[in-house]
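I am writing to request your help with a piece of structural work I have in hand. I set the record out below, with my sincere thanks for your time.
___
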Amino acid sequence: MTSSWRRYALHEENRDRVCVLCNKPHRATSTLAKGLFCSECRTPYLDHEDKRVRQAVGRAQRRGLPASLTILEWLRIIGHFNSQCAYCSASFQVIEHITSINNSGGTTRYNCVPGCLSCNRLKDHPLPGCYPISLEKIEQVKQELQRIFS
C-alpha cells in the first residue's frame, strides 16, 4: 500500500458522522465538513442556523469568553421562543447575547436568545426617546432559559 493510498483511506474513514438530529450514520461531504446533519435532515434553514451558531461561538472564542452553545441547544431555544424575539415577540434576526460579548458575556445556552435587530441595539445602546428593555424583562428571559435546560 502506498503512502498516498493510506492518506486516501484515512481521509475516507474520517468522513463518517452521526446526524445530531436523528442519530443516523452518514458520510460527510469532506473531512473538513462538519457533517452535523444527514441528507434527510439537512435543510437550508438548519445550515443557516448552524453557521449563525458557529460565528457567534467563534466571536466569543476570539475574546477568550465561554463559547459552548451547540446547534441543538440553539434550536431548542429558538423553538421555545417560537422563532420570535425573546423581548418583543417580533421575528428574530440575530443571536442576542443577554450579557453582550463586549461586556464579557459568552456564547452559551444561558446567555443567548433569539432577538430582533431593534432589541439587540436597544438593550446595550438605548436611543434618546426610546425605552430600553427593562431589567425585569431581561430577568424574565434569563429565567426562561433556566427552565428550558433544567
